[in-house]
TrEMBL record:
Taxonomic path: Eukaryota, Metazoa, Chordata, Craniata, Vertebrata
Originating organism: Bambusicola thoracicus
InterPro entries referenced in this protein's UniProt entry, alphabetically: Ig-like_dom, Ig-like_dom_sf, Ig-like_fold, Ig_I-set, Ig_sub, Ig_sub2
Ig-like domain ranges (all copies): 43-130
Name of the protein: Ig-like domain-containing protein
Ribosomal protein found in the keyword field: no
Length: 191
């Protein structure tokens, strides 16, 4: 232990109370107080429910968060519909309760439920996973050699899920171009 540090292991409700630290030497004595509160509650999703709709790109990776309020830390389990999920090559349940799915396919769509349980009780929350088509660059910008003073045009075309909006962002050497501020120099044509 470091000097002046008090460590309590395996806290119980009897450990709650007002603690006082006294530091003393030949020149005097000083005091400091702190209250230790012991928190215990069953899992609840009232403050942080699961998202009702989760989108995942086809062939991509998705993490579905499960963050109930609970003390002590709960144990987590997941189901898809009525099927209990276990860790495998594509599915992993993290210690914090999150569910990760890689190489998402159409078969992964459905209702996912997170169950949280501690020695105070249990709760669950459900969300629906929907798959979208992955966004892909179908025509990438090409290197261009232009004489100083002339105009240059660079193209970028992407395919995307029709149910989602698509935004193109251009950057120069890592800095995003602000087309409103630099409209005299840069022009964006959206086709």
């Amino acid at each position: 232990f470091r000097k002046g540090e008090l460590r309590i292991q395996g806290l119980t409700f009897e450990d709650a109370g007002m603690y006082q630290c006294i530091a003393e030497n030949a020149h005097g004595i000083i005091y400091a107080n702190a209250e230790l509160k012991i928190v215990a509650s069953p899992p609840t999703f009232e403050l942080n429910p699961m998202k009702k709709k989760i989108l995942a790109a086809k062939g991509g990776r998705v993490i579905i968060e499960c963050k109930p309020k609970a003390a002590p830390k709960p144990k987590f389990s997941w189901s898809k519909g009525t099927e209990l999920l276990v860790n495998g090559s594509r599915i992993h349940i993290w210690d914090d309760g999150s569910l990760e799915i890689i190489n998402v396919t159409k078969l992964d769509e459905g209702r996912y439920t997170c169950f949280a349980e501690n020695n105070r009780g249990k709760a669950n929350s459900t969300g629906v996973l929907e798959m979208t088509e992955a966004t892909r660059i179908t025509l990438a910008p090409l290197n261009v050699d232009v004489t100083v003073g002339e105009n240059a045009t660079m193209q970028c075309i992407a395919s995307h899920d029709p149910t989602l909006d698509l935004t193109f962002i251009w950057s120069l050497n890592g800095f995003v171009i602000d087309f409103e501020k630099e409209h005299e120099h840069y022009e964006r044509n959206v086709m």
